[in-house]
Design brief:
heterodimer; A: alpha/beta; five-stranded mixed sheet; four-stranded mixed sheet; 12 helices; 33% helix; B: alpha/beta; Rossmann fold; two-stranded antiparallel sheet; 7 strands; 7% strand; binds thiamine diphosphate; thiamine pyrophosphate (chain B); EC 1.2.4.4 (chain B); Alpha-ketoacid_DH_E1_comp (chain B); oxidoreductase (chain B); 2-oxoisovalerate dehydrogenase subunit alpha (chain B)
Chain lengths: 355, 431
């Protein structure tokens, strides 16, 4: 992980005081600050009120900002998003939580047919400035319904932005930007790394954010522009495109394999930072794409197509896609499903074969 | 946005937003005096052929049979033989012993997850006794009592909890998400209330085929907010499906009290009224009332009178699951103050009152059941525990995605096996 030691980027003013936060605290801080700055920001979802959320992401917010701005909802994801759309139409800026990304499917219609299209179909009369937070991804023995990565469903739908942070620092800055954004944004939180980065080895001691440079987070307001990727490790040998938990797994594998990879943390899938991707792949001539979600029609397919379209004459090897398998997320066999160090390592060997 | 005070309509009375709030939070002294508990035996029992609109009042009261002195009273008394009641009591006690042991197994690191049904044992157990064995159950995650009452193997249930070599679900599902077709127990989903319309579909199919079996389904009161609940009610009403809807109102949905599912305004049984289906509100800690209501609803279903919605008024005496700490959001005093008591104790007291049971036998039975569960656990652990690693053949990861594996899954399966080889160590890390 020594490659991820760059200082937090310039979006935060240097004079800002900082403190240690894990990703949950950083997310909590982002909502807290936005609720302070903007009386129209409200937080709602199952168990987010008094209790502060099953992952504690909204802890303390109700006590501080009041029950009409931070409240529990009935258990209906479709209702939660539909109500958020209506509140947005009134002029509020709702930040609904879907308790697990696996439970977002009942809300698909309100997200896809409504939130995503309101601006378009009303010629801008109505918009959906909502930010849907949802923990996603596996690696916690959560079985089929607490582990999925459904981001590819939403990147496929026009009109929704999709953001996935990989560090506490990014989580806070991106969430603030998402809340300020006037379009609907899905903010998927990689729950495997809520408490610390993850090297992909389930049987090694877990780390926490206190030793990671990106666990040092400004206490005040700052934002990270949506649509901007981050090069977390500069290198020449190949480009690795990843996001969320997989950024850390890739960094660990690359460090172990002593390969001079350039790791690009996409941070926002839609809109995509095509310039950073293109420049990197054209420089390295090789591109590997890593995500935890299932393979077929996953976001990796889009990345692969776009890199091929734009960088074909610079490619020295076929693009490699490393993903979860096309199965539901299993319970006991989850580490056989997970695209861990071995799968990534094998793909690295393949793509670097003729280098 | 414009602030309300500068609004052009500022001379009108401002609106306020109502946010429900439970009566007690951590640290509060608990007094459930406001919970309306009508006397046992008071509710009338309509004929099963009556129209749903003729007994709407039953959606707003509580059908109760067991009174405070352990007597079975009123028109809903199912008049069960002492033998059946003793078996029901035994099933409930076995369920409690099973829960206790498996909860502890999770705490000992033997598996990843567990959920108890503490305090609401009567809901699933008494229903299982009232239904025919052939009737199909579409449960939520808190009706393990159905399997136990239907005499299903404890070892088999534990194998699933441990994701071990003998797990009938091959380690693919989260612990307690059983599936036992043989015992008429549908595969449990982690996604709330999806089983509701499925139960209606099964019941419609049974009716369309001229079958005699009916379906029953369960969800928590919190889960009634999901759209699937309402879709199910509409379909069931339209097609008069032979189905029983059970809403287990145990007052809490993780940290959210029933007010967030609408309980401040009306009862859950009253949901039935709007859909024009039969609704009953039942003392869920009274095994005889649950039995009687289920039997009555089953009779309606079997005679083509259509669906019944039964609200079981009960209390979740334990945390939501092993991942939960209820002390964070509700008063620790609630479980003991619950005015409807403990369902096991209430049936026990009744059997004692009629001279068909005594404390000594009960204590001896508890001991025997604890031994039975312990022995089952020992047996199940011979097949492995999750804490000790993988027990399924790696390639089984791909079994069941489709009936037959398409080329891309065959390729991925080979890739996984190659990864195991490349890793230089076997992945079936049995201890
Ligand atoms: C679609 C969906 N949304 C959210 C969840 C998360 N969740 C699991 S159980 C639960 C509470 C359910 O409460 P209730 O229906 O009252 O049942 P109880 O747990 O009390 O038996 C929630 C919100 C889920 N499993 N599925
Ligand atoms: Mg409940």
């Amino acid at each position: 992980m020594s490659d991820m030691t760059q200082a937090p980027e310039s979006e935060a003013t240097d004079a800002e005081p900082t403190t240690r936060m894990n990703m949950i605290q950083a997310i909590n801080s982002a909502m807290d600050i936005m609720m302070e700055r903007d009386p129209d920001v409200i937080v709602m979802g199952e168990d987010v009120g008094y209790f502060g959320g099953v992952f504690r992401a909204t802890a303390g917010l109700q006590a501080k900002h009041g029950k009409t701005r931070v409240f529990d909802t009935p258990i209906t994801e479709c209702g939660i998003i539909g109500v958020a759309v209506g509140m947005g139409a009134y002029g509020l800026r709702p930040v609904p939580e879907i308790q697990f990304a696996d439970y977002i499917y009942p809300a698909l219609d309100q997200l896809v047919s409504e939130a995503a299209r309101l601006r378009y179909r009303s010629a801008g009369e109505f918009t959906s400035p909502i930010t849907v937070r949802s923990p996603f991804g596996g690696g916690i023995f959560g079985g089929q319904t607490h582990s999925q990565s459904p981001e590819g469903l939403f990147t496929h739908m026009s009109g929704i932005k999709t953001v996935i942070p990989s560090t506490p620092y990014d989580a806070k800055g991106l969430l603030i930007a998402a809340i300020e954004d006037n379009d609907p944004t899905l903010f998927f939180e990689p729950k495997r790394i809520y408490n610390g980065p993850f090297d992909g080895y389930w049987d090694r001691p877990s780390q926490n954010w206190s030793k990671h440079p990106a666990g040092e987070v400004p206490t005040g307001y700052y934002k990270i522009e949506l649509g901007k990727a981050k090069i977390v490790r500069a290198g020449e040998a190949l480009t690795i495109l990843a996001y969320g938990t997989m950024v850390h797994v890739c960094a660990a594998v690359v460090a172990e394999a002593r390969i001079d990879a350039e790791i690009v943390d996409l941070r926002t899938l839609v809109p995509l930072d095509i310039e950073t991707i293109e420049a990197s792949v054209k420089k390295t001539g090789r591109c590997m794409i890593v995500h935890e979600a299932t393979r077929t029609s996953g976001f990796g397919a889009e990345l692969s197509a776009i890199v091929q379209e734009r960088c074909f004459y610079h490619l020295e090897a076929p693009i490699e896609r490393v993903t979860g398998f096309d199965t539901p997320y299993p319970h006991s066999l989850e580490w056989a499903y997970f695209p861990g160090p071995v799968r990534i390592g094998e793909a690295l060997k393949k793509i670097m074969k003729d280098a | 946005m414009t602030m309300a005070s500068e609004h052009p309509r500022a001379n009108l009375q401002p609106l306020t937003l109502h946010i429900p709030e439970p009566k007690f939070r951590p640290g509060d002294a608990v007094d459930f005096a406001e919970v309306d508990v009508p006397p046992a035996g008071e509710a009338r029992r309509p004929d099963t052929a009556d129209k749903a609109s003729d007994f709407i009042d039953l959606a707003y009261t509580l059908v109760r049979v067991l009174d405070d002195d352990g007597n079975a009273v009123g028109p809903w008394d199912p008049k069960l033989s002492p033998d059946v009641m003793r078996r029901m009591l035994r099933s409930m006690a076995l369920l409690r012993a099973f829960d206790e042991r498996m909860f502890r197994a999770q705490r000992q690191g033997k598996t990843s997850f567990y959920m108890k049904a503490l305090g609401e044992e009567a809901v699933a157990v008494a229903a299982a006794y009232a239904l025919d064995y052939e009737d199909m159950c579409f449960p939520s995650y808190r009706q393990q009592g159905l399997l136990i009452a239907r005499g299903w193997s404890l070892v088999d249930m534990m194998n699933q909890i441990y994701s071990n070599t003998a797990d009938r679900l091959g380690g693919k599902q989260l612990p307690i998400m059983y599936s036992v077709k043989e015992a008429g127990f549908f595969s449990i989903s982690g996604n709330l209330t999806t089983q509701y319309p499925q139960a209606v579909g099964w019941a419609m199919a049974s009716a369309a085929k001229g079958d005699t079996r009916i379906a029953a389904t369960w969800c928590g009161e919190g889960s009634t907010a999901e759209g699937d609940f309402h879709s199910a009610c509409t379909f069931a009403a339209v097609y008069r499906a032979p189905v029983i809807f059970n809403v287990v109102n145990n007052q809490w949905a993780i940290s959210s009290f029933s007010g967030f599912a609408g309980a401040e305004a009306t009862t859950f049984a009253a949901r039935a009224v709007g859909y024009g289906i039969a609704g009953l509100r039942v003392d869920g800690n009274d095994a005889l009332a649950v039995y009687a209501a289920t039997e009555w609803a089953a009779e309606r279903a079997r005679t083509n009178q259509g669906p019944t919605l039964i609200e079981h008024f009960t209390y979740r005496a334990e945390g939501h699951s092993t991942s939960d700490d209820p002390g964070q959001y509700r008063s620790e005093g609630e479980p003991n103050a619950w005015p409807l008591g403990d369902p096991i104790k209430r049936l026990k007291d009744h059997l004692i009152a009629i001279g068909e049971w005594d404390e000594e036998r009960h204590a001896a039975q508890d001991k025997e059941l604890a031994e039975q569960v312990k022995a089952a656990q020992k047996e199940a652990e011979k097949n492995g525990i999750l804490g000790h690693g993988l027990h399924q053949p790696l390639e089984s990861l791909f079994d069941g995605v489709f009936e037959e594996l398409p080329w891309h899954l065959k390729e991925q399966r080979q890739q996984m096996l190659d990864e195991e080889t490349a890793s230089g160590r076997p992945w079936d890390r049995k201890a």
